[in-house]
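Q: Could you write out the predicted structure for this multi-component system? I'm mainly interested in how the pieces pack against one another.
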Amino acid sequence: MIAHWYGQRSMVDDTDVSQALEQLRRTGGRVTQQRRLVLQALVDAQPHPSAEDVAERVAAVAPDVHMSTVYRTLNTLTELGVISHVHIDHGPSLYHFADDVRPHLVCRQCGRVDHVDAETFEAVRATIESASGFRLDRGHFAWSANCPACRDDLD
Amino acid sequence: MIAHWYGQRSMVDDTDVSQALEQLRRTGGRVTQQRRLVLQALVDAQPHPSAEDVAERVAAVAPDVHMSTVYRTLNTLTELGVISHVHIDHGPSLYHFADDVRPHLVCRQCGRVDHVDAETFEAVRATIESASGFRLDRGHFAWSANCPACRDDLD
DNA sequence: CGCTTGTTACGAGTCGCTCGCAACAGCGGG
DNA sequence: CCCGCTGTTGCGAGCGACTCGTAACAAGCG
């Protein structure tokens, strides 16, 4: 479904891993091999792996790591605010580091994904906020749209 | 989770049902009692019932109508363009008549939902379109946000 | 090196649908 | 008004994406 990604690449790297582990330790959590592997997989599988993608990468290195551990780790890291996920069309949640949260646009026809730049997003946010009082999240849900190539198809 | 709805009510009524059945017949489909009941439930359960809500209402009148029939009918009507659904936070799809498609704002804290008025939406759409070429859908995905009451909590 | 307490593997369970199949029922033709 | 063609339905199994209870396990502080 998702045929193509473009736009700038994320700038996630190993420092994200150590910062996440740091955060984990600081809040009384433990730094386990499994968690290290999940975080590394998250870095390697940029830009937007699903829990399955992460599990697959982890399994390549440590086949005994259970799926539920991957899910639990992903949830723990989400609660810590280290990572976040986005829902794109139907299908599983896609994960990314929290410092890489940007609003997504997804084409409903071809699945192509783009990001909204910060300036445009802030403009939209201000418009919505003054009209309704609601302050838009940057991430979490992708904005459903039609990309230029598919735009002729419908309103 | 969803504590409160506000904003103008939809204007869905019985004419939507007959128009939908009409459309169904025109495209070679059959007007069955089950479909009538699903459509009626959709009208009665405004503004945004889940498939379960619809099935429950149908079951109150005709207990033998199977869940899968409800899902199939909702899918058929979606393909016909008569109805549509929106994803609000995690949880099931919420259905509504297609003529009632409006962009939704959902508060991530309290679940309160609001609509974006047409004028504001068009302004946002124009902004996004000129920045990225993507043309926003009116419906399908809710925009995740914080409502005025919960706004202090996070960025 | 223990001990405490957070983590993990495993497997069963849940939620929200989806599908194959045989029985059934609209509805256009005769 | 009945026939029969073909779209629909009921039923139950299946599935994708998680979630949870439990007992074994292992960080990391003392």
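A: Regarding packing and overall arrangement: Residues 1-9 of chain B have pLDDT under 50 and may be disordered.
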